[in-house]
Amino acid sequence: MFKNLFIEFFSWIKAIILALVLAVCLSVFVIQPFTVDGSSMEPTLQGLDHFNPQQAGDRVFAFKTMYLLGQEPEIGDIVIIDSRVEDERTLADSFIESPMIAAFIDVEERSRHNWVKRIVGEPGDRIAINGGSVYRNGVKLDEEYIKESIYLDFEEIEIPEGHVFVMGDNRNGSTDSRDIGPVPIDHVTGKVVARFYPFHRAETF
Predict the structure, then answer these.
(1) 20 to 30 Å CA-CA from 13: which of 72, 97, 142, 145?
(2) Any idea where the Peptidase S26 domain is (predicted)?
């Protein structure tokens, strides 16, 4: 009897461990949930307000496989970036960022560098801001999703190969490529494909 109980118990332990391993791999390599923090993507996404407990922040799913397999981000994609553009990313970073692993470490510290932004420029594009609008290769962008016109101009730069230019939709309340420079494509870690919470605002992108 005790032998059978031990075998059954051991089987359950193996099943739980396997499930945990699969969950970690899923969040590292396939799809991962994120909580939007701050107001930089308003009005598209509402972020966590640390001074207002009633504003919890939108929850989104980011699809990771496409970028891990070499597909490059495109204009208009809402993406998760690693803002540490001067640092080399490793596979260990992806594992540390998994919610399953982050539960056992300093989550806030580990996730602070993960930003949600929108791609506005690809390699070789020239990006500038004049008169409250973004210009790509001399053409004014029609951006219905932004919160308001941009207060400050930005001198034109050319995006180097292997990089993208990202901005928040709340252009006057966003820290983005205007501050940290173009983002290496391998620092674009996932494409936001859906908002799943709050439920009444659930949608795909």
Answers:
(1) 97
(2) 11-197
Cβ-count burial of 167 within 10 angstroms (0-12 exposed, 13-18 middle, 19+ buried)? buried
Q: Which CATH class is domain 2-204?
A: mainly beta
- At residue 115, the 3 state secondary structure works out as strand
How far is 61 from 75, CA to CA, in rounded Å? 19
Residues with Cβ within 8 Å of 188's Cβ and at least 6 positions away in sequence, in order, are: 67, 73, 79, 80, 81, 119, 164
For the chain, what are the domain ranges? 2-204
36 burial class (0-12, 13-18, 19+ CB within 10 angstroms)?
Answer: buried
Which one, of 133, 182, 131, lies nearest residue 160 by Cα? 182
Asked whether 63 and 31 are in contact (CB, 8 A), the reply is yes
Question: For 184, phi and psi rounded to 5 degrees?
Answer: -55, 140
Q: Give residue 20's identity as a one-letter amino acid code.
A: L
| pLDDT tens per residue, range 119-173 | 999 999 999 999 999 999 999 999 999 988 999 999 999 999 999 999 999 999 9
Q: How far apart are CA 123 and CA 159, in angstroms?
A: 5
Helices (H), 58-98: 65-68, 91-96
User: CA-to-CA distance for 201 and 43, rounded, in angstroms?
Assistant: 12
H/E element holding 99?
A: helix 99-102
Residue 157 has a CB neighbour count (10 Å cut-off) of 16
pLDDT at 106 over 60: no
